[in-house]
Write a structure and sequence with these properties.
This protein is α+β, with helices and mostly antiparallel strands. The strands form two sheets. Strands 2-1-3 form a three-stranded antiparallel sheet. Strands 5-4-6 form a three-stranded antiparallel sheet.
Length: 169
């Protein structure tokens, strides 16, 4: 607990002891209000997830919003709709039709980097995939087969992918 909070709580205890008088009651309310205001300003200042949204409409006008919620309020939509438009890039329908929306700021989530996988066929062909899920979808390999081959660093011993070797890059 920081010093300012301890100070407020101590003053509050003293005021509550003297709560029977009108001055004590007013003092307790003032300290409580002060404490709530301090918490609000700290919350606003220390919010690391505050992300600015930059929106370029189809006419080329650029507008910056200080948060996803502000952008949602401006267009009278939900936060989820704004996030969906950000993930989509340039929506073709709806409120954000033709707009380019991007997210930046210190709270912007970085793209999750997948685990690159090198797949070697028995014939010697090499294929590099950006993620494990990409290998699963492209080749139709089983989850267990793929992860076991990556972990043991050996060729697959039986089944449809016999002789294949999967390694992480």
């Amino acid at each position: 607990m920081d010093k300012a909070l301890k100070k407020h709580l101590f003053r509050l205890r003293i005021a509550y002891m003297d709560l029977k008088t009108p001055e004590g009651y007013r003092m307790a309310r003032a300290i409580t209000k002060e404490l709530i205001d301090d918490k609000k300003t700290k919350k606003i200042q220390g919010n690391k997830r505050l992300r600015t949204v930059t929106l370029i409409d189809k006419h080329g006008n650029m507008k910056t919003y200080k948060s996803i919620s502000d952008c949602a309020r401006a267009f009278n939509v939900r936060r989820g709709d704004v996030l969906g438009a950000i993930n989509m890039g340039t929506p073709e329908t709806g409120v954000f039709e033709g707009c380019v929306i991007s997210l930046d700021g210190e709270g912007a989530k970085p793209k999750k980097k997948g685990r690159r996988v090198l797949a070697r066929s028995p014939e010697g062909e090499e294929h590099v995939f950006d993620s494990v899920s990409e290998v699963l979808h492209a080749l139709g390999v089983g989850n267990g087969v793929l992860y076991r081959s990556i972990k043991t660093k050996k060729e697959v011993s039986s089944g449809e992918f016999e002789g294949w070797r999967f390694e992480k890059c």
